[in-house]
Recover the amino acids of this structure.
């Protein structure tokens, strides 16, 4: 049985020297959570399976700063590190992997140029390419009959629209159809974030997580909404995700990675201890 992965997510802003981890609600109202390298070291010691760094400033001028953060982190931690945010060229991927990352996460650039996923996968291998999909529920079903309509928890129905630029720009793309496409293009994993749940602590968006997990052959990382470790259990059992990403509950000391894993193991979920 494959073990389920627990992945802390560090949203890094480069406005401060050395970078700073922040956490918000639906990608806004940011609250500082600490130094990225120190948090990464803590999670490595606690037994996290992987780490995700998302550069949420991602401006070209500050890219060197993020490379420095990656290099310092890679010197301190010994678990897989995924880096995303503003990555739009194979040269950027090469520099990030060279700095010590194991995978890169692509999002907006992939939506604007899907061939970027294939090109990157061909050069670096699918195991290095994670496609991040940020999506939001869209209840306009009548005018979108070509979309994948999903029944929700409250018996309403919606389709999930891909959004880019940190959730600010709707694309009209159906998240399920887009996920199927990037899998064919060579993406090795999907990082699925529900914008409706991000930072709310109301639990993961189980309907879309479950459908993608059942539809695709590549792993699905559930993201957005973790408020407690019961939500992680639901992501694995009801959502059928391969990994659960969380931020606030770890950053602000509500739970440790070890406590999450002990809870999951006690309820029959296979995790690496």
């Amino acid at each position: 049985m494959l073990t389920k992965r627990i992945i802390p997510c560090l949203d890094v802003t480069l406005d401060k020297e050395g970078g700073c981890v922040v956490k918000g609600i639906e990608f806004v109202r940011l609250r500082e959570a600490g130094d990225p390298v120190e948090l990464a070291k803590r999670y490595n010691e606690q037994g996290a399976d992987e780490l995700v760094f998302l550069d949420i400033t991602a401006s070209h001028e500050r890219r060197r700063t993020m490379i420095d953060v990656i290099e310092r982190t890679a010197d301190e931690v010994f678990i897989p590190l995924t880096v995303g945010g503003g990555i739009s060229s194979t040269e950027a991927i090469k520099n990030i992997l060279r700095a010590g990352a194991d995978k890169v996460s692509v999002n907006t650039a992939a939506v604007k140029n899907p061939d970027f996923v294939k090109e990157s996968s061909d050069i670096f291998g699918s195991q290095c390419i994670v496609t991040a999909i940020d999506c939001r529920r869209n209840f306009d079903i009548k005018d979108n009959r070509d979309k994948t309509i999903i029944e929700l928890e409250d018996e309403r129905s919606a389709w999930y629209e891909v959004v880019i630029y940190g959730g600010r720009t709707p694309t009209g793309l159906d998240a399920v159809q887009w996920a199927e496409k990037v899998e064919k293009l060579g993406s090795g994993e999907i990082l699925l974030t529900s914008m409706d749940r991000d930072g709310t602590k109301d639990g993961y968006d189980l309907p879309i997580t479950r459908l993608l997990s059942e539809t695709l052959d590549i792993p699905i990382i559930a993201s957005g909404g973790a408020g407690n470790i019961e939500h992680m259990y639901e992501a694995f059992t009801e959502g059928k995700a391969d990994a659960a990403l969380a931020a606030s509950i770890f950053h602000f000391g509500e739970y440790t990675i070890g406590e999450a894993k002990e809870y999951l193991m006690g309820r029959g979920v296979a995790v690496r201890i």
In short: The chain has a mean pLDDT of 91. The radius of gyration is 17 Å. Residues 93 and 104 are 7 Å apart (CA to CA). The longest strand covers residues 129-138.
